[in-house]
Specification:
single chain, Metallo-beta-lactamase, Chain A, 5 helices, metal ion binding
Length: 192
């Protein structure tokens, strides 16, 4: 089961997805809310934190979550504060009951990862792609529009039209034809 523990939070945060199952994992921790309390309400324990990237709104709660549950944080770059274990491009990670392919997808930030499970039909898109073809900002440090376009294209080629759910770093998850939103993001990123 996938639940956004940041839903309804009225402060500056990203989404933070608690995925329960064989390996209970928090995908991004969000910021500026009681993530530990939310996790304790919904799960008996936490096995790991997996990060899409290390912008402050995605990792603000990282240290408190790691301390409370004595878990490691997995991300692309262990030189980033709080990242304990590196996930390489095209490595596989277990999240909940499913295996996810990690895709290094820079453009919004150099250490950005998306996680795709073909068998489950699920994509964690971080801040690369959002609902209705929106896409991640490239005006922040490490932002690069050309790299972002290549990353969106890579996700479009890796995922397929059978994709059932896309969980994004901000805004609502997409559960109706999410592949269409990926295609729209690729077109929109080229236009603006």
């Amino acid at each position: 089961m996938i639940r956004n523990i940041a839903a309804g939070v009225q402060s500056f945060t990203s989404n933070a997805f608690l995925v329960t199952g064989e390996r209970t994992v928090l995908v991004d921790t969000g910021a500026n809310f009681d993530a530990v309390g939310k996790i304790e309400e919904l799960a008996d324990d936490l096995d790991a934190v997996v990060l899409t990237h290390t912008h402050p709104d995605h990792v603000g709660n990282l240290e408190t979550v790691k301390d409370a549950f004595d878990v490691d944080a997995f991300g692309f770059d262990t030189d980033q504060s709080g990242v304990d274990v590196a996930i390489g491009d095209e490595e596989t990670v277990t999240v909940g009951d499913d295996e996810y392919l990690a895709l290094h997808t820079p453009g919004h930030k150099n250490d950005h990862l998306c996680f795709y499970s073909e068998s489950a039909g699920i994509l964690f898109a971080g801040d690369l792609i959002f609902q209705n073809g929106s896409f991640g900002r490239t005006d922040l440090e490490e932002g690069d529009r050309e790299a972002l376009i290549k990353s969106i294209d890579r996700v479009a080629v890796t995922a397929d039209e059978e994709l059932q759910e896309m969980h994004t770093g901000h805004g609502p998850s997409v559960t109706t034809n999410p592949y269409h939103d990926i295609e729209l993001a690729g077109k929109a990123a080229r236009m603006y």
